[in-house]
Design brief:
heterotrimer, A mainly alpha (124), B mainly alpha (99), C mainly alpha (356), B: 99 residues, mainly alpha, 3 helices, flat, disordered C terminus, C: mainly alpha, Four Helix Bundle (Hemerythrin (Met), subunit A), 0% strand, globular
Chain lengths: 124, 99, 356
Amino acid sequence: MAEALHWIGGALILAGALLSILGAVGVLRFPDVYTRIHAASLTDTGGATLMLLGMGLISPLGFVMLKLLLVWGFIMLTSPAAANALANAAFGAGVRPRIGTFQIMGEDKPGGSGPERSGEGTAS
Amino acid sequence: MLVAAGVAGLVVAMSLMIVRAMIGPSHYDRILAANSFGTKTVLLIALMGFLFGRPDFLDIALVYALINFVTTIALMKFFRYRTLARPLGAMAREAGKDG
Amino acid sequence: MSGPTIDANFALNIALLLMLVAIAFAVVRTRSLLAAILMMSVYSLASAAWLMVADAADVAFTEAVVGAGASTVILLGAILLARGEAERVNWKLMIAPGALAVVVGAVLIYAAGGLPNYGDPASPANSHVGRAYLEQTYGDIGAPNVVTAVLASYRGFDTLGETVVIFAACIGVALMLGFGPRATLAPPTEIPNDQHVVLRVVAKLLIPLIALFALYVQFHGDLGAGGGFQAGVIMAVAIILHALVFGLRATMAAVPVRLARTVAALGVVVYAGVGVVCIINGGGFLDYDYLFSPRIEAMIPANLLGDPSHEHHWGQHFGILFIEIGVLLTVSATIVTMFYGFAGRTLETIEAERRG
């Protein structure tokens, strides 16, 4: 039983590492800030979840488990918040997405109609 | 063995992040890379604790997670607003454009 | 540790050191000072990870909190006073310093061949004082973490000196930059589009957690990695996070400048006061065995720390505890004061000073 848990935990850790590499490749290859933020924050939280779950399976129950849970909680709390703040700041500073043909918040277009502006904040 | 492979994978991901932090055209790319690098460092240290049989490394991983967040917020705020003093959400108008 | 683990250790060392070299090159190459600060913080994280591989947990702890946390924030505050770009230097001027650097580097690499092997038990560092510390600490002091025992007890004088130096830095920064914004900050104008609501909520959740964690690091210091210095920086980081998200004005209402100033001095007083109490009870300065008079020592229950069979040195335990609290107070207050000093200088303040 313990042997099986060990292997499952190891496999989860490896999966988390692979997800991290995928995210890093995404950060390197994607064309603009927003897609990169997307790649990084998703794989950060996902990879962290997989890895910490794997470590939890390997470790004995007790204090270590509690600390793993705490680390997981911190990452789940801070990483999305940092990504959101970053995207918010980049958009506020005038960086615009490079891909996609949809129009955002009626900006960048002199003829933008009034009602579109009401969706501000939710679209970003 | 699988844990060691996980460490190797994280190191590869961290190196790729460093590349992005070096070239990353805008400052926001750099901050993003630094933040992601920090998260991976947290995981790396936790994993090394398991690899070397020292689970008390988790304390340090926890500190990294905290510090990483605060550093990211400070960098973001400074790059965007050129000040550390004002409350967030109150300075959008006077902030200069910054790539 | 079996064979493959050692190899993994070696490979990890090489990988992290290469990473450090790459980041250092990036720091030197970039001309934007902001990017350089950012890369320095990445450098600190990576070097702390490398210190963990070298099994120096306390140093890694300090590098993480000071290098990646406090110094990044303070440098960001300082860069307001400078231009954002490094000056372009004529390459002819760099020939002589470059040659000198290459020569010194070559000499150092040559000298590295004469160093003892990593972890060599016969090396000078591990054979005389170092071994004595490792062998005697648990019997003399009873603290499981030797680093804390050496810093706080055997080398108590040095640590007192360091605390005073930190306090002096606090005074120096405060005298140069003032204890906060010299001009009043204009009242903020609310703009609905840029609220950072997520950040506010998360920060509100995190700040008490960070403060609690600082206390954990503080009181866990004689068992594991950590201690007053690291805990002080973490506590200051909690306050800095509050200032970053909710504004310096709100933070100064919660932690007034006067309080920070007082606490910085109080920490040194606590530390030196422990030493004076030791003198009054008949010992030397900072000789914790004399911290309590015998009557008080007899009143401490033997099972206070759970293990009544092991003979405890209560004076040492409490002496380390008290001076670590002193270090915590001074360090946290100093970093908060520095942050106030730098961050309080907004662009308008600098402009106003230049004009008149």
